[in-house]
Amino acid sequence: MLNFITNEQMRKADEYTIKHLPIRSIDLMEQACNSFVKRITEDISVNEKITVCCGTGNNGGDGLAIARLLRLKGYNNITVIILNIFSSSSPDFIVNKKRLNQLKIPLFEIKKANELPNNLDIVIDAVLGSGFQGTLKEPLAEIIKKINHHAKYIFSVDCPSGLNIDSSKIKKYQGIKADKTISFQRPKLFFMFPESIVSSKSHEFVFIGLNEDFLQSLPSDYFWIEEKDIVGKLKVRQPFSHKGIYGHLLIIGGMSNTMGAAVLCAKSALFTGVGLVTCCVPKENFSTLNISQPEIMTLERENFNEISLNKFNSVAIGPGLGLTQNSKEIVHKILKEKIPVVFDADALNIISEENWLGKIPANSILTPHLKEFDRLFGSSEDWFARLEKARCKAKELQCIIVLKNQYTFTLLTD
Ligand SMILES: NC(=O)C1=CN([C@@H]2O[C@H](COP(=O)(O)OP(=O)(O)OC[C@H]3O[C@@H](n4cnc5c(N)ncnc54)[C@H](OP(=O)(O)O)[C@@H]3O)[C@@H](O)[C@H]2O)[C@@H](O)CC1
Ligand SMILES: [K+]
Asked: Is 256 annotated as a binding residue?
């Protein structure tokens, strides 16, 4: 698990690594740029026309080093454009400018948008990185607008220029609209939110050699879960074992017109390792389950009151359940049992409609999508606010909240 960190924390990690590895700042920049170049050379061939647009801070220094490293790898069609509009240049930018001058790469310095060429193909955006603060003013706003207009594909270095990555309040975004952002050492939390799509269509991150022990010691409320974090937690089937020792799940869901939701839920449970799955559905839908997944056992929803929940290891309620009076009575009965349950879909909608949030037993799992979440907890100004709300509500209700989206947020109770 990697902790998401802020720009400020990243700066500390940068300082710590320089001091304790030890490594010179210019060498760390070189390492970062090598990682960036290694990644983008998988996507672009040596003949492509590449324009590297640079500011004069460290992000701009990265751009100059990237241009040089690409050139050394045989990329011959590179042009560097330096935006000569900032009040100062960082020391590492100055060093990299000298290093670049030793290679025969066309380099232009511009001050206005009309000096920018129109025929931009692939652009490497190294104008502004994590040091950007405030808002974009002229002539920078106009230059960036022109880059967005003329580029065929934009790779942003570390973050799209002009994006305040730690503040998702981008009502009128004016910065670079990247096709892909490759950030350093960590994914950026902001890219987990749908709002980020205006600034970057896709994102990746590369390791640049910052001290991981220090980084992981930095406080964070959110963590990026990787495949390797999950794999070890899955229960492996042991030789001579049988379905009876891998848990029995009861799913309450499905109606004639929404049986697919119950089927998909049951299939997912079996796929992820549950030994026995019983679905409680209207009797007329038994054959749907039997045909689509014969392992699934069935119980009649009409006889729900006679079912003893004790014989199941876990209970999930909601997929395709519907909002009928009968569905409401079943949700109410489940809530009264005071056992932790997985609440999904219509079970959540019923809980919102009936104002039963306070009745949810501790340690339950709530799995809302965006709209179900907002129905439960009210609307939010943006995704960052929604995520913070989810984090607080998980603590308050002592329930795990799984907020589903392109990236799913799992909020724990502590
Ligand atoms: N993480 C790491 O360990 C490593 C990080 N590295 C890299 O360093 C980057 C951070 O570099 P950084 O701190 O020099 O800042 P950076 O993004 O270049 O911006 C500074 C420039 O922004 C300008 N500027 C600011 N606000 C503005 C505004 N509103 N409107 C206009 N201009 C504005 C400001 O202008 P000035 O105020 O001087 O006029 C200055 O010129 C980081 O993103 C990554 O790429 C790697 O090199 C190595 C390892
Ligand atoms: K950038």
From this structure: no
